């Protein structure tokens, strides 16, 4: 499974992954059924599972990922947020997941705890996502973070990281990419990209980061361009204003607002056509695309085609 995953990601075939948001409830069965209904598992290379995005309570990302991986026999990447775990908890969860063959991990710092829908939530946040990457590096070497040998040693864990798609100073974005590659990231997933020019800039930046990294694994590291298909004007405004690290171009917001004036059907028609065009351009330009639709699996299936 993981050999095929790595070959697809590093090869010439398109690599398409889809983000899954676990439910605010006690079972992920309905989400699995919805994926089956739209045969999405037949169109993608992998899934990823979010970890209490926007600090809002959801089912465990790791346990959800295990269920999805078992349901589809496809590699699933579990997001792990530094916001909610210290280094003891991180290692314990990684070792437990390893025994269930969950070995793709997306490391991120996490959205601020102050955004949470739960009362008086406090973040743990011992360090940023590079702590998790360094823990995985040590586990892959057969020791825990303190240097004590693990018996038995875990099977290889494949760490990935995230990056903003834009920044006021792109040199700072480059530095953050280099840092994550230095800590062992096998690839970097970007926040949503909305035009080919931005995609080209990110690809060039990532290639430079690979050349600057001290880590040998950076030579085969890959960039995966994020895309958030927008078919509603209010969605464009919400993610631009409320979701950290995402910037929706004003031209897209204006186009969607104009379409919405002519009704929901026109709004969806314009948004879908624009999203499909962006997706096709990304696949043709780069090949590695990660779709984020907040569990709109029918939309994912239509976009992929």
Outline of the structure:
The chain has helices spanning 2-10, 29-37, 61-72, 87-99, 129-140, 170-182, 196-212, 233-242, 250-260, 264-285, 297-304; strands at 15-20, 46-49, 76-81, 104-108, 158-163, 187-192, 222-227, 288-291. By secondary structure, it is α/β, with parallel strands linked by helices.
Would you mind describing this structure in some detail?
- The protein is α/β, with parallel strands linked by helices and 305 residues long.
- It has one domain: TIM Barrel.
- Helix content is 45%, strand content 14%.
- It has helices at residues 2-10, 29-37, 61-72, 87-99, 129-140, 170-182, 196-212, 233-242, 250-260, 264-285, 297-304, and strands at residues 15-20, 46-49, 76-81, 104-108, 158-163, 187-192, 222-227, 288-291.
- It has an 8-stranded parallel barrel, surrounded by 6 helices.
- Helix 7 links the parallel strand 6 (187-192) and strand 7.
- Helix 8 runs antiparallel to helix 9 and helix 9 (250-260) packs antiparallel against helix 10.
CATH class: Alpha Beta
Widest sheet: strand ordering: 1-2-3-4-5-6-7-8
SS content category: alpha/beta
Distance between the first and last residues' Cα: 24 Å
Largest sheet: 8 strands, parallel, barrel
Helix percent band: 40-55%
Indicate the CATH architecture.
Alpha-Beta Barrel
The CATH topology name reads TIM Barrel
The domain tally reads: 1
Q: What value does the Rg take, in angstroms?
A: 19 Å
Quick check: average pLDDT? Answer: 95
Tally of strands: 8
Assembly state: single chain
- Listing every helix as H and every strand as E from the N terminus to the C terminus, the arrangement reads HEHEHEHEHEHEHEHHHEH
Shape: globular
Count the DSSP helices: 11
Beta-strand content bin? 5-15%
């Amino acid at each position: 499974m993981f050999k095929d995953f790595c070959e697809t990601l590093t090869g010439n075939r398109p690599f398409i992954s889809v983000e899954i948001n676990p439910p605010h409830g006690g079972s992920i069965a309905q989400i699995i059924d919805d994926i089956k209904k739209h045969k999405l598992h037949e169109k993608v290379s992998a899934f990823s599972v979010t970890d209490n995005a926007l600090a809002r309570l959801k089912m465990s990302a790791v346990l959800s990922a295990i269920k999805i991986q078992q349901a589809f026999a496809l590699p699933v990447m579990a997001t792990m947020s530094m916001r909610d775990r210290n280094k003891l908890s991180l290692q314990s969860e990684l070792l437990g997941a390893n025994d269930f063959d969950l070995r793709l991990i997306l490391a991120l710092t996490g959205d601020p705890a102050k955004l949470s829908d739960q009362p008086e939530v406090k973040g743990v946040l011992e360090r940023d996502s590079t702590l998790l990457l360094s823990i995985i590096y040590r586990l892959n070497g057969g020791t825990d973070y303190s240097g004590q040998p693990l018996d038995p040693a875990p099977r290889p864990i494949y760490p990935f990281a995230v990056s903003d798609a834009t920044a006021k100073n792109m040199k700072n974005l480059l530095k953050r990419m280099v840092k994550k590659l230095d800590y062992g990231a096998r690839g970097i997933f970007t926040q949503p990209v909305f035009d080919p020019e931005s995609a080209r800039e990110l690809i060039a930046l990532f290639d430079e980061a690979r050349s600057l990294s001290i880590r040998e694994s950076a030579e085969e590291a890959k960039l995966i361009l994020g895309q958030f298909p927008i078919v509603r004007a209010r969605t464009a405004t919400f993610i631009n204003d409320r979701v950290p690290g995402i910037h929706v171009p004003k031209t897209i917001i204006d186009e969607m607002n104009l379409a919405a004036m002519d009704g929901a059907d026109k709004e969806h028609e314009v948004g879908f056509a624009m999203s499909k065009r962006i997706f096709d351009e990304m696949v043709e330009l780069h090949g590695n695309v990660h779709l984020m639709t907040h569990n709109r699996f029918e939309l994912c299936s239509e976009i992929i085609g």
